[in-house]
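Q: I have 415 residues here and want to know how they pack in 3D. Can you give me a structure?
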Amino acid sequence: MTKTSTALENLRGYAILIVVAVHSCIAYLGSQPDTQAPFDTPPYSWMVNPIVDSARSYGFDLFCAIQFPYMMHLMFFLSGLFVWPSLQRKNAGRFLFDRFLRLGMPFLLGVYLLMPIAYYPVYRVTAVDPSWSAFWSHWIALPFWPNGPLWFLWYLLALNICTAGLYRFVPRAGELLGRWAGIAQTSPGRFCMTLIGVSAVAYLPCALVFKPWQWISFGPFNIQASMILPYAIFFFAGLGVGIHGFERGLLAADGMLVRRWAVWLAAAGVAFVLWIIPTALIFKASGEGLLALQIVAALAFVTLSATACLGVTAVFLRFATVRLPVLNNLSDNAYGIYFFHYVFIIWLQYLLLGVALFALAKAVIVFTVTLLLSWAATAAFCSLSIGARLMSGKRRAPARTSAPSPVSASEQTSS
């Protein structure tokens, strides 16, 4: 396995740790509402804050604020890297069949089987009748079907379908994307500026219309309204890098991006300050001042998303090119952990309500137990043929006797 492939696999493990960590501490944000929102009353704020605990810490607000602007962008960027090579190996028909199997089927199973179990404790907090039958009647009466973090699967599938359409009907689109991404080999700054510019054009109108925590729903298809276009842009940016060849382009182990990793992190730090200050002031501003702050915050946000995404990637390409057994195993099971973790997080946060512990202690317990249980659930599910096929793309449970090839690692990342 090459240094770049190893670094990307380690980065994938890091990404799932951050996702679990962010979800683990949402119940303990200092900015949480004072009380739990009613389950069946608009605007259904429990979609953002499923469990509201009296133990609070503004340190968690800062942690989530650091991760929010770039983490999902990074996941879409990584997911796009290996899509075009996979299309070239399989052609559009076989590729789409595999994507429906590995993204569509888990989405349906998760939304219709796991999510009711995950959100049952949210209902119980304010319920007069906490029984499952009462919950189910309230659940099916909702004007949407909550899908929690599984929204990532359906949207990633939609982007894969769009890519397959481009490959089939507009094959030159891939060539153009690859040519654009090729500038990143010698000038990652130009690549980043283009990414920021395109993201700004797409994100600014959405940011002025929708609040950051506002979601839109079409049946089981929920997504953060202001992020629909930015996430797609980062996916196609990753697609372009993959078409050009990430081993010799932007993500080359000895490339310009890696050599200037400290510069990228510094740029992300400056962008964070330029974003967080106007964002904090927005809650107190009004009139013309509000509009100006929204524009500044939106421009700083897209700058932060791009610089932080590239900066974190550069750090892993520079310092994480050695296979670490624990992180490697975590990366191999990242998909399954993402699939299962929300059930454990909400139930643990619910069970800890009223327990006399500091917010930090509760968050650490939720994070640790969730990670272990999700990891174990993934291993158990993958011991079944269907589980191994859905979670790892293999027809039977794998027995790791040797290091995976770059191809197998890339196929896992693309899912």
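Q: Anything worth noting?
A: The CA atoms of residues 38 and 220 lie 21 Å apart. Confidence is low (pLDDT under 50) at residues 396-415.
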